[in-house]
Write a structure and sequence with these properties.
By secondary structure, the chain is of the alpha/beta class. The chain has one domain: Rossmann fold. The protein is built from eleven helices and nine strands. Strands 1, 2, 3, 4, 5, 6, 7, 8 and 9 form a nine-stranded mixed sheet that branches. Helix 3 packs across helix 4, helix 9 crosses helix 10 and helix 9 packs across helix 11. The protein is globular and about 60 Å long. The chain starts with 23 loop residues before the first strand and ends in a 5-residue tail after the last strand.
Length: 316
Amino acid sequence: MSNNVIFQIEASGSPLAGSAGKTSNVRTVSAPGATPTSPPREAPPFDIQAVKARQKATWESGDFGQVAKFTMPSAEEFMAGLELKPGTRVLDAACGTGNLAVLAARRGCRVSGLDIAANLLTQARERAQQEGFAIDFTEGDVEAMPYEDASFDVVVSMYGVMFAPRPDRVVRELCRVTKPGGLIALANWTPAGFIGKMFAVFARHLPPPAGIPSPLLWGDEAVVRERFHGRIKELRLTPRIARLCFPFDPAGTVEFFQRYYGPTQRAFQALDPASQARLRSDLVELEARHNISPRPNETDTPSEYLEIHARRALGD
């Protein structure tokens, strides 16, 4: 079953929402240079402009700011693992409402944020203004970033760039805008984790488009090594666990995402009433089966993601 159906309901440049709570290290794999495991297969062509227009419209649906409030704890843990000194130039790529950007600014960094969705950037700018930060938020595409070469010491993205439809271009741009010796730090959902299972539920109800690689491949260690091969000096891959914890029972959690989260909202809108009921039932069952909270009005589903630290070589 293909999981790239998410491109019918997801958008490039924003994190897949729902990460909150504690994060635990599972294991670390160091792979300087990384060796590809197999030659890349040529994907069938697709209308890239139509894909991007659909993604932008999707992420500008709902109210992602409501969801982003629950993602901040895991964002804090992700950023705590980075050495960020005052004055460090940081880019939050596919920044959404600016969780990572705000956290970097709190540590004295000089921060920029890039996202495809204009309304999410409006919320990000409001957050920065409320905290007194001068963060440069720009509307744009992570596959064609509007920055000069070697502009940033650190480029970060949490459940964001993984949704861009052309990963080869994403890698090229990440490396291009990062300074030699600089760090690219990504968090991407894995195929085997809870979110991977959720993608499979959507795939059962919505036919996947042809030609677009699954975003979950960004959570596959072998694929990540292949994508960065020859472009970086050191690659460190660390599977981690994010807690998706919401103050609702499983049915309420599904309802929350249907109301506020654009991709889920669009998925339901694409189905007739009977199909909507079946999708809702499957999602509620999935949430209930993976819920570890003992509280009746809380849903806590640990979800695996792959933390990627890719460092460019000095002098590149």
